[in-house]
Design a protein that fits this description.
- This protein is of the alpha/beta class and 349 residues long.
- 38% of the residues lie in helices and 16% in strands.
- A seven-stranded parallel beta sheet has the order 3-2-1-4-5-6-11, sandwiched between helices. Strands 7-10 form a two-stranded parallel sheet. Strands 8-13 form a two-stranded parallel sheet.
- Strand 1 (16-20), helix 1 (25-36) and strand 2 form a beta-alpha-beta unit.
- Helix 5 (107-124) runs parallel beside helix 6 (162-180) and helix 7 (214-222) packs across helix 11 (333-348).
- The longest helix has 19 residues, at 162-180.
- Bound molecules: uridine-diphosphate-N-acetylglucosamine.
- The site of uridine-diphosphate-N-acetylglucosamine has 22 residues, from helix 7 and strand 8.
Length: 349
């Protein structure tokens, strides 16, 4: 018997994509990857967690000046004007608050912003011929998982913070929305721990005040802005007693959004969920050691008490995104940390 092998080329088209929160950490890196792919990103941001210089840097990196609207996504009329003027085909929604501790202090602010902005978008999307929607979700929806690595089928558990709950509510809203809007194809991306910066060091994370997240704290300590890093607990049941996370380079994460839009163009079903992680976990101490190895800079630290609400260990089973989206992480942990350091140094200059 003669076997004939037919190769199907996946057809994708370049498109105009509205990027809410496009000047933020993950948003700005996604704008770079969209430009690299030949797409036309339209940024909406009000710089509450970013700065106008990021737009200049995007131009420096990509050679393109992104179209930009200074707008709060809670402003429904303002959003509608952008939809009417730009006529995008796709939307990627980043604009949201993301600090776990702050969400405990100011739950209503989190519910209003994170859920309200999605409601506004979902009011407009069906009226404006939007075909594709990508939503920025988080592995926080898995809570404290009983089995790791977590797959997309792992149970959604009670959220440990209002921030986590907003992600769960938004995921459910999108699921319900998709049932009655079959023509709008949607991907939820559940991010693990985004770190790093564009390899140029020109864009990166701009933490507001004292960083909550590990890597900005490490880089600020290495730069001498903080006396020392507190490691939140050293008595967990892990190889060195510190918590395990799946740290993913932000440019790899950004690339997953480009791949998600390409994937959606070839789908019949309209609701999809993917974990975006490297598939391996690192302890906090391993991150500190990898940073020191990559940068040759010593980080002063001490082991402090556990942080309330911390999950002991979580990392992604990423087999679904590897096979279905043809996505692969390109950067190692050390490269990601070196890029974070480059960005930190550019801020200290
Ligand atoms: C949290 C959220 C995640 C969100 C992410 C980005 C949960 C469970 N996780 O991730 O959804 O996307 O923030 O905002 O809601 N650490 C220290 N010292 C520090 C800072 C952190 O030891 O100064 C430790 C933490 O205790 C943790 C690890 O480093 O073990 C990572 O912490 P962090 O960067 O804050 O991210 P997550 O809490 O994992």
């Amino acid at each position: 018997m003669i076997k004939i092998r037919i190769r199907f080329e996946v057809q994708t088209e370049r498109m105009k994509i509205l990027v809410t929160g496009g000047a933020g950490f993950i948003g700005s890196h996604t704008v770079v990857e969209l430009f690299n792919n030949g797409d036309v990103p339209i940024i909406i941001d009000d710089f509450r967690n970013s700065d106008p210089f990021i737009l200049e840097r995007l131009k420096e990196i990509t050679g393109n000046t992104p179209v930009f609207y200074n707008l709060d996504c809670l402003d429904l009329k303002g959003l509608e004007d952008v939809f009417e003027k730009e006529k995008p085909e796709g939307v990627v929604h980043f604009a949201a608050y993301k600090a776990v501790g702050e969400s405990v202090e100011k739950p209503v602010m989190y519910y209003e912003n994170n859920i309200g902005t999605l409601i506004n978008l979902l009011k407009l999307v069906p009226q404006h011929n939007i075909n594709y929607f990508v939503f920025s979700s988080s592995c926080t929806v898995y809570g404290d998982p009983e089995v790791i690595p977590v797959t997309e089928q792992s149970p959604i558990q009670e959220a440990s913070s209002p921030y986590g709950y907003t992600k769960q509510v938004c995921e459910k809203m999108l699921q319900d929305f998709c049932k009655v809007n079959q023509n709008i194809k949607t991907v939820l991306l559940r991010y693990f721990n985004p770190i790093g910066s564009h390899p140029s060091g020109l864009i990166g994370e701009l933490p507001n005040g004292v960083p909550n997240n590990l890597v900005p704290y490490v880089t600020q300590t290495a730069a001498g802005q903080r006396d020392q890093l507190t490691i939140n607990g050293g008595d967990y049941n892990t190889s060195d007693g510190t918590c395990i996370r799946d740290y993913i380079h932000v440019s790899d994460l950004a690339d997953a959004h480009v791949k998600a839009f390409a994937f959606l163009q070839n789908q019949i079903s309209n609701f999809h969920v993917f974990n975006v992680g490297t598939g391996s976990g690192s302890t906090v101490l391993e991150v500190v050691k990898a940073f020191e190895k990559a940068t040759k800079v010593t980080v002063k630290y001490f082991i402090g008490p556990r942080r309330e609400g911390d999950v002991v260990s979580i990392f992604a089973d990423n087999s679904k995104i590897l096979t279905e989206l043809d996505w692969r992480p390109k950067f190692s942990l050390e490269e990601a940390l070196l890029h974070s350091w480059r960005w930190q140094q550019s801020l200290s200059d």
